[in-house]
């Protein structure tokens, strides 16, 4: 083999490796992992406005407690916490600020303050049962979050959920996995 064909083979090997790597990256980011930016204070203190997140969407199964990204009809995304899944009963005692799922008080050490209706707006009727293929979501900053308590959001269909928030990569001082 001469030197010229060795260089050509080396270049072809590099191009093939780069092509495979780019193809794999495109597949992962198209079907499995996505990037999203938090818009607003509704998930504080867990997530802050303008934080950059990675969500896992491939093979994701919704579970209570997950922080998810929801696609709205107006092509915007919202980030909320799943409180209850299909068939579960949700009740909110606005006087005490407590949330109950299947008559069990939720231990919510992640919320900014107790749950009230300070925002205003048409509330869904409580207690309510989450319909099939839907979830009930709330923001962690309950009194600055429009979520499933309000008819404007209501129960969220599972097929409107992009995936679960798994990692925060910006700002750098808050980088890490999301519990």
Features:
179 residues, alpha+beta, eight-stranded antiparallel β-sheet, four-stranded antiparallel β-sheet, 1 helix, elongated
Explain how this protein is built:
The model has no long low-confidence stretch (mean pLDDT 89). The chain has one helix at residues 3-31, and strands spanning 33-37, 52-56, 67-71, 77-85, 89-93, 98-101, 104-105, 128-129, 134-138, 156-157, 161-170, 176-177. The strands form two sheets. Strands 1, 2, 3, 4, 9, 10, 11 and 12 form an eight-stranded antiparallel β-sheet that branches. A four-stranded antiparallel β-sheet has the order 7-6-5-8, with no helix packed on it. The protein has 179 residues and is α+β, with helices and mostly antiparallel strands. The N and C termini lie far apart (57 Å).
Elements, N to C (H/E):
HEEEEEEEEEEEE
Number of strands: 12
Tell me the fraction of residues in β-strands, as a range.
25-35%
What Rg is obtained from the alpha carbons, in whole angstroms? 22 Å
Q: Roughly what percent helix?
A: 10-25%
How would a crystallographer describe the biggest sheet? Answer: 8 strands, antiparallel
Q: Treating each run of at least 4 consecutive H or I residues as one helix, how many helices? A: 1
State the shape. Answer: elongated
Structural class: alpha+beta
Mean pLDDT: 89
Ends: how far apart? 57 Å
Q: Low-confidence segments, ≥5 residues, pLDDT <50?
A: none
């Amino acid at each position: 083999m001469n030197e010229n064909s060795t260089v050509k083979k080396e270049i072809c090997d590099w191009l093939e490796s780069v092509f495979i790597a780019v193809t794999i990256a495109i597949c992962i980011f198209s079907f499995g992992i996505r990037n999203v930016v938090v818009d607003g204070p509704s998930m504080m203190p867990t997530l802050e406005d303008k934080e950059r997140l990675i969500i896992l969407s491939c093979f994701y199964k919704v579970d209570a407690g997950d922080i998810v990204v929801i696609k709205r009809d107006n092509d915007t995304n919202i980030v909320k916490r799943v409180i209850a899944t299909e068939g579960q009963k949700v009740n909110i005692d606005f006087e005490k600020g407590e949330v109950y799922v299947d008559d069990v008080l939720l231990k919510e050490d992640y919320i900014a303050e107790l749950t009230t209706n300070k925002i205003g707006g048409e509330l869904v009727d409580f207690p309510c049962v989450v319909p099939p293929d839907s979830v009930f979501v709330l923001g962690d900053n309950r009194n600055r979050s429009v979520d499933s308590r309000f008819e404007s959001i209501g129960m969220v269909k599972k097929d409107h959920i992009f995936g679960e928030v798994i990692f925060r990569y910006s700002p750098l001082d808050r980088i890490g996995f999301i519990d």
